[in-house]
Amino acid sequence: MNDAWKFMNPGQNVVGNSAIQSFPDLIRRLGAKRVAVVTDPGIMRGCRERSR
To answer: d(Cα 37, Cα 52) in Å, to the nearest integer?
Structure first.
């Protein structure tokens, strides 16, 4: 079994408790047309509460 993997990321990863607050500025600054947010139900629940 091979447990090693390589992740090549040409973009930017933003992580942490307050990461969602920086999303609007990052999206505008990068001129992004589409973004991908990867999360799980527990984290998403916390993000919705913080973004209000």
So the answer is: 18
Question: Which range marks the domain in which residue 34 is found?
Answer: 19-50
- What is the count of structural domains for the chain? 1
Q: Are 20 and 47 in contact (CB under 8 A)?
A: yes
In a domain, 42, yes or no: yes
> Looking at residue 16, what is its pLDDT?
79
Dist. CA 13–CA 22, nearest whole Å? 12
Over the stretch 1-37, which tens digit does the pLDDT of each residue have? 667 777 777 777 787 777 878 888 988 988 988 888 7
In a domain, 5, yes or no: no
Q: CA-CA distance, 21 to 25, in Å (whole number)? A: 8
